[in-house]
Structures are given as C-alpha cells and as structure tokens.
Design goal:
Layout (H helix, E strand, L loop, with lengths): L7 E6 L3 H15 L3 E6 L2 H10 L4 E4 L2 E2 L2 E2 L1 H10 L5 E5 L4 H10 L3 E4 L5 H26 L9 H12 L1
Parallel strand pairs: 1-2, 1-3, 3-6, 6-7
Antiparallel strand pairs: 4-5
C-alpha cells in the first residue's frame, strides 16, 4: 500500500490561527483525501495528543507559547523518537535550521514558501526517511538472513545485563 492510498495522520502544532488556517487550506487543496490533520496550539497540548493517539508525522512551528527552538523538536522526540518531525518556521536562518535538523527533525521549511505541494512532499519524504532509518537500525542489530540478533546487539545486551 503506498502512502497515497491511506490517510496520513498529522499532528500540526502552531499557535498562530492565521498560519494554521493557511497551511490546512493549502494541504486540503493539494491532497484533501490523503490527510487526517489534528491541530493544537501548544507543546503541552501536543504532548497530550501524542500520548493518546498514533500519528505518522508531526508538523510544528519552532516558537510556541510554552517552548521554542530545538526544545520543541527534542520534546516531541522524547515522547516518540520514531516519529518524523517537519519544522515549518518563519525563521530564515541557516544556523537554526541546522540545529533543528541535528536535533532530529526530518525537514525544515519556511512558512512563506511552504505551499501544499512542498509540505505534502516534505511529509512523504520524512515518513520514508524514518522508515529507512528504522530498517537500517534493524539491520545493524539483526542478521538479514536469519533475523537473529547479531554480535553487536548481543554485546550491548550483555553489557546492560552485567551492570
């Protein structure tokens, strides 16, 4: 089943009602039937949603009433580190974008350039990159032929057991 054949569950964290409406309308105009989008206005509300519901991706602003900068990304990933995070911000600063990406975000888009097509593409790519990361992580710890734990995983678990 391809990503276009089912609803992608999106949690959108944005405290600006105007920015949220613009993005939601833009996404709906681009691929209306492909997304189920829930919108919250703070990290606190997002935390509650992430603990209660399953999402495929998180779209977030960097500056929220209760958190800002990379703290937003790290807080989301502390709840679920397998969840792709796409940042949509008005900050056109490469150093911030790089810090956010190093913190674990999958993509960084500028609000004034983020139309429905670009955001939709970023969502698809973020989900695919996370899926590939998960596969690579598995292959680093398990034998691809037998599915059994490899030596590296054995040593890691033995080390934890001896502590």
């Amino acid at each position: 089943m391809s990503m276009n054949e089912y609803n992608i569950r999106i949690l959108y964290i944005e405290d600006s009602v105007i920015d949220a409406r613009i993005l939601i309308k833009s996404l709906n105009n681009h691929r209306q039937d492909s997304y189920q989008l829930d919108w919250v206005e703070s990290l606190k509300d997002a935390t509650k949603e992430l603990k209660q519901n399953e999402y495929d991706v998180v779209l977030t602003d960097l500056y929220l009433p209760d958190a800002e900068d990379i703290n937003v990304v790290t807080a989301i990933l502390d709840i679920n580190n397998r969840l792709p995070v796409v940042v949509i911000s008005s900050e056109d600063e490469n150093t911030i974008a790089m810090r956010v990406m190093k913190a674990g975000a999958q993509d960084y888009l500028l609000k004034n350039k983020a139309d429905g097509y670009l955001v939709s593409r970023a969502i698809d790519y973020a989900i695919e990159r996370k899926r590939i990361e998960k596969g690579l992580s598995y292959l680093a710890q398990y034998d691809s032929l037998t599915g059994l734990a490899n030596r590296a995983l054995f040593r890691e678990r033995l080390g934890r057991a001896l502590i």
